[in-house]
Design the sequence.
């Protein structure tokens, strides 16, 4: 699997993502600078890591969304290539118009940095095919503006198309307001586009893929993509 | 030269956490007359044109391209002689 890790000024999750792809999964990974472009065919997986691109100026992801590399990412998206946006990467994908909705400041205005629980709502995606639907994962969340917002129509579409992939829950998998750390609508933590080849998620799967970190729940997100690329989509049980 | 003043604010119905926090702080300081407070952004843009309608068209384009997120924000602007 050929992977690209996109770097914007202010990206900080790039080395973690690169490490997971190249050392944990053992796949080929390459950094791509925001000023550069590539052909949509060049990579199987494109990762937009977290951080604070352009210092989160204007709106998180807004300035990154008009950089050169986004043209290539849009081209790859059209070809059905797999694109994963994590944290700020998710915000960039929304600002670029590749995913619907936007983010607001967290409802308590605090930067949230702790482990949270999410429930897998749809395992028929390239990113979740190794999970069971309803499975609860523990993932690190680290954001100040992770409060997902979309208009009613978009939310209805996300629901009816089963594009809400991850939702904040308690550790038993109950979708309740108390388990929503940022106040996002419908407890949304991650969504895919209609075609299903682009996932944006606020929690950080790349930060929990190895035993030494005492949590490997994030690893199967990357392994699911690998399984999808190598053998076509195989749904979980 | 024309000067555009672009004012961006949240749409009605969109929660404004910053405005809410500032309002709470002012109420706490005794300004009880405050009934509502919304935060926004102001951009001042100098444009190298003498034609006001050109400036308007350009500013509208800039807003839609980058400055405004139509999911949550509305905007107004005025064009002044700079």
Sequence:
């Amino acid at each position: 699997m050929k992977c690209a890790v996109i770097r914007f000024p202010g990206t900080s999750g790039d080395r973690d993502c690169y490490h997971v792809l190249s050392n944990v999964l053992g796949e080929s990974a390459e950094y791509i600078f925001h000023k550069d472009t590539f052909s949509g065919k060049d990579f199987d997986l494109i990762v937009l890591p977290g951080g604070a691109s352009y210092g989160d100026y204007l709106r998180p992801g807004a300035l990154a969304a008009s950089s050169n590399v986004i043209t290539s990412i849009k081209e790859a998206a059209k070809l059905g290539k797999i694109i994963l946006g994590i944290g700020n990467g998710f915000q960039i994908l929304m600002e670029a118009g590749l995913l619907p909705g936007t983010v607001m400041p967290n409802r308590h205005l605090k930067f949230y940095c702790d482990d949270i629980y999410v429930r897998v709502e749809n395992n028929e995606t390239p990113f979740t095919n190794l999970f069971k639907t309803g499975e609860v994962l523990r993932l690190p969340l680290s954001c100040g503006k992770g409060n997902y917002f979309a208009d009613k129509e978009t939310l209805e579409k996300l629901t009816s198309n089963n594009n809400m992939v991850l939702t904040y829950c308690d550790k038993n998998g109950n979708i309740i307001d108390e388990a929503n750390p940022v106040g996002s609508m419908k407890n949304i933590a991650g969504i895919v586009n209609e075609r299903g080849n682009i996932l944006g998620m606020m929690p950080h799967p790349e930060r929990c893929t190895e035993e030494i970190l005492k949590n490997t729940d994030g690893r199967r997100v990357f392994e699911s993509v690998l399984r999808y690329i190598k053998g076509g989509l195989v749904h979980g049980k | 030269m024309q000067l555009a003043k672009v004012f961006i604010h949240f749409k009605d119905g969109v929660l404004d956490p910053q405005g809410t926090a500032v309002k709470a702080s002012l109420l706490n300081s005794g300004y009880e007359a405050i009934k509502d407070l919304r935060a926004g952004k102001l951009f001042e843009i100098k444009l190298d044109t003498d034609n006001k309608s050109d400036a308007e068209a350009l500013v509208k384009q800039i807003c839609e391209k980058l400055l405004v997120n139509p999911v949550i924000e509305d905007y107004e602007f005025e064009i002044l002689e700079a």
